[in-house]
Amino acid sequence: MSLRASYDPQVDILYLAEEGIAPETVEVYPCVSLEINPTGALIGVEISCAVERLLGSAIVEPMLNGGEFYKVTLKGSLADLDAQLRPADGSEHLDYIEAWPDLLEKDPEAVKTLETIRRGISALLEQVKDGTAVS
For residue 21, which phi and psi values (nearest 5 degrees)? Predict the structure, then answer.
């Protein structure tokens, strides 16, 4: 399974996706959505605004490729991020994530989840920064 990353600076969208069908998309933070496959695994992450603010300019700049749309294949998968985002009680993503929009302003765990997503994406995109990503 290959993991693709793409960034379009004109519309400020970063997308990480593995092969597969994602019948469920869940917004876990404004402009941050997770794609879940039929078995409940995370197969895609989309950040559709404020990409640089959410991830940091040091991570986003290598994705700019001269200011043009950039697409690259990364080594690895979303499995580690998937495991970090699952609740400790082992419940499925959807049972856990559906409540997040209501908790964003009330629960510090929502902010912790966003930080987990940011760190996970940043770690994957380090391959672009250090030149080990496969084009």
Answer: -100, 130
| Contact present, 38 and 70 (Cβ < 8 Å) | no
pTM over 0.85: no
How many CB atoms sit inside 10 A of residue 128's CB?
22
> String of b and e for 86-115 (b: at least 16 CB within 10 Å)?
beeeeeebeebbeebeeebeeeeebeebbe
Q: Residue 85: which of 106, 110, 104 has the closest Cα?
A: 110
Sheet holding 24-29, edge to edge: 24-29, 32-36, 42-47, 13-18, 3-8, 70-74
Q: Residue 56: is its pLDDT beyond 60?
A: yes
pLDDT at position 94 is 44
- Give the max Cα distance, the chain: 45
Following CA atoms 40, 70, 60, 43 in sequence, which dihedral angle do they give, to the nearest 10 degrees?
A: 0
